[in-house]
Design brief:
The complex is a heterodimer of chains A (104) and B (294). Chain A is mostly helical. Chain A is built from two helices and no strands. Classes of the chains: A mainly alpha (104), B mainly alpha (294).
Chain lengths: 104, 294
Amino acid sequence: MTLGEMLASFSRQLVDLIQSTNDIVRKRQLRDQLDQLHTLVGQLVDANVNRATTEYAAATQGIQADIAAIQNAQQDIAKIAQTIDAIAKTLNALEQLAKKVAAA
Amino acid sequence: MSSFNHVRPVSRLLALVPALALAACGLTVAQRSAVGQFAGASAASGEFAASELPHMREAAINLDAASAVLRGRTDLGKLAGPFTPEVIAVRVAAAEALQSYGRLLQALVEDTQQAQLAAASSHFVASFKNVAGKSLSDGQYQALGTAVEVIGGFIVERKKKEALMQIVPQVKPDVDKLCDLFIADFSGTGLQLGQQLAADIDALTADLSIALAELPRSFSDRSFVVQAQALVDRENARAQANSAHAKDTFTRLKQANAQLANVLASETASIEDIVALAKQVQAWASARQALGAK
């Protein structure tokens, strides 16, 4: 069992006890214990959330760099048709040149 | 220049097509399928996380506010707890990056450049006619255009494969990392945001138990308790469903990511890939026949 699972289980058990007792004083005592437990959970969560936020940002930055690489690849692929077009233009230019040479 | 001399280079060009098809073969059916599966999984999981995380912040504020009212608390400065706008914004940006990555991969695979290649090959044939003179039949020119288009298509497919083989292994660790982070964040036991939300739900459940034991007398008190209980029930059900869904969705995304990387690394072609290749070969074979090439 992980620490998170133990703390969650303990929290649920305290809530079950609060719900099952009819003694209002006992309910309040248990509620105070639940508060202490949740303070501990909050401290651990705060520390983990801050660390995870840094990790999220780093992983997101990595993915965004690769998104740029995909966009570059898409532009590169679009150039194939442009290259065929460029060859066609070159052929046209050669044809014009050949006509001029023949006329000269 | 005789028409015979034009036919031979063109037929040679067409004869090259099978070699190009094999040398410049693009993505296999299995690879396309893996990209599709990954794209679908990443879009779904990114959308889920991007919409649920802001809701978790709202839920935490509402639960904590109800608790504060029932306990007569006055420290209302941190109702959101760790669900700060900055924390949520970073996670939503990560979810959106996952979505964008999947969609772009899909677009890369689906972008055949067919219309652009068809237009370019028509232009090419028109130019070729000008240079060579009207030495080939219309059918032969049409075959030449098809050949140019098919070869362009093969190059497009090859470039796609090269891009995917470079990008996917590079981005895999980041995608895996985000999946692990999201699983932990939605889990009620991950000591991350999900566990804080579970603690807020437990806290309000306990406060409601005490409030009900004290028998609220006024209508507004009773109304508040009933609404707070409804809030607990709704958010508890949603948090549990989200935890299970996140675990399932992000685990599947990690699997799809691993499969995508494996299938791109593997050069083993399945029978479906060979059938697909055969269909491509058939397309240019008819073009070659039109030229009367042997």
